[in-house]
Amino acid sequence: xxxxxxxxxxxxxxxxxxxxxxxxxxxxxxxxxxxxxxxxxxxxxxxxxxxxxxxxxxxxxxxxxxxxxxxxxxxxxxxxxxxxxxxxxxxxxxxxxxxxxxxxxxxxxxxxxxxxxxxxxxxxxxxxxxxxxxxxxxxxxxxxxxxxxxxxxxxxxxxxxxxxxxxxxxxxxxxxxxxxxxxxxxxxxxxxxxxxxxxxxxxxxxxxxxxxxxxxxxxxxxxxxxxxxxxxxxxxxxxxxxxxxxxxxxxxxxxxxxxxxxxxxxxxxxxxxxxxxxxxxxxxxxxxxxxxxxxxxxxxxxxxxxxxxxxxxxxxxxxxxxxxxxxxxxxxxxxxxxxxxxxxxxxxxxxxxxxxxxxxxxxxxxxxxxxxxxxxxxxxxxxxxxxxxxxxxxxxxxxxxxxxxxxxxxxxxxxxxxxxxxxxxxxxxxxxxxxxxxxxxxxxxxxxxxxxxxxxxxxxxxxxxxxxxxxxxxxxxxx
Length: 479
Known about the structure:
alpha/beta; Aspartate Aminotransferase, domain 2; Aspartate Aminotransferase, domain 1; seven-stranded mixed beta sheet; four-stranded mixed beta sheet; 19 strands
């Protein structure tokens, strides 16, 4: 007797193998690509559509209660790193929804994935009832994250802040209600009540009663590596002495996002992580912004810190967010839930993004992301050489600088440039001039402040880097 292999749950859906569906999907994707051929570069607004944009922005301001940073309203149409706005203009999108759209706008493969997923029976999937897309997403993410780590489980959710809230609850329960958190200066974890208190952004918790106990450690200082490690270890030891057995976890962004794309070396991090391991404090890597963008899918992999990953939170490029954790941290029933864990389309597209990143040449020392950053760094250094007056020494709070703060920084698809000595006012003016020239970027940092790029690394080409850097240089001269 021949035993047939078991079907997957999705194979029970007749829509997956329907010839009519296959033909319809192919027609839709072909139509998309045909129309995308009209987008070849930045272009100015259509004067006849100025009122369309203005009315849309008025409505947006009305429902939000305040205007946006940019007069931005998308048309729902774009091609790779280029996006078309409601006024018909086309711009380089180099911030991608603060790092969400890693494959840019209208990627045909992701559109096809989304169309197929949209034929499912539900728009949203939840923790009480889900379809196989939720399992496939979690399995694919875990498979990418697990090698060399103790990570064993994945709990998807709808936002990065919720992934971090879930992580905090898991750690607190594991540590029998230990109320304190070790975190780093300039970190950012989201905008819920708890996360806004852990994040080191005063404006993000203005007026919020402080109920979360946080001990901040100084982060790696590129101007004084040895001194910064000593200062961090001193602060860590003081916190451990002052509050023995009271810390539920240590949480860190290995590349600080909102804090200024600050990076740290493995040599700096290992003594800190070893000390936390000695006293039984779970180690949590917050990769919500760095996920997928650096020289490896996870930054802890690029730094060789897999063994320390007790918990990892991801989001943005993954479309659906998640908390990954070890079997030791696996919480008791009832601690984690939520009506929504993610949309069916988001789960399918998120899984496809992970697959494409792993199947392609994105990672490694000579991978796509590394090459893109090299092109960015080289181009920026040329701009600085030609325009030294726009790049004075960067003003930082470092008390013992051994070297100057670098004007170019980041890693992979997390890129920053620091003009005007890191001052915010002229940087904001530059960003608006860039926007008018057809380049959408943003800022990061808490002083110094930096021009921040989170470009669509999945589709960006080195030639594209040269093109948008040309606009940045021209915008500097527009001042």
